[in-house]
Amino acid sequence: MRKIILAAAAGAAALALAACSQNTEEAASDAADSAMADAEANMDAAGDAMQDAGNTVEGAAINAGDEIENAAADAEAAADKAAAEVDQAAADAKATGEAN
User: Fold this and answer.
1) C-alpha to C-alpha distance for 36 and 75, rounded to whole angstroms
2) Residue 98 included in any domain
3) Residue 1, helix vs strand vs coil
4) Cα–Cα distance for residue pair 3/44, rounded to 1 Å
5) Domain range for residue 66?
6) Got the DSSP string for 28-83?
């Protein structure tokens, strides 16, 4: 009788451990799935941040290029104006010299 009780107790312990093991396996699987979802969300967020940074850099480069073009146009206009003034001054000097 004693052996039957011990065998029943051992069987019950084995079933309890098997059930515990199944719960542990399910919990570990759920934790792994959750970690995978978190990693995927973080990768998506990092990708979005990189895209935003790229757009910001691209916008800044375009604005800088526009500003350089505007500055070059202003410099060209100033040089043309200065050349016209020099030409006018030379013409005035020549006319004054001829009049004397």
Assistant:
1) 58
2) no
3) coil
4) 61
5) 1-72
6) HHHHHHHHHHHHHHHHHHHHHHHHHHHHHHHHHHHHHHHHHHHHHHHHHHHHHHHH
Q: What is residue 100's three-state secondary structure?
A: coil
Question: Could you give the CA distance from residue 62 to residue 65 in angstroms, rounded to a whole number?
Answer: 5
Interval 25-40: pLDDT, tens: 677 788 888 888 888 8
Question: Structural domain tally of the chain?
Answer: 1
Does any domain span residue 95? no
Tell me if 15 is assigned to some domain.
yes
**Amino acid code (one letter) for 99:** A
pLDDT in tens, 8-64: 666 666 656 566 666 676 777 888 888 888 888 999 999 999 999 999 999 999 999
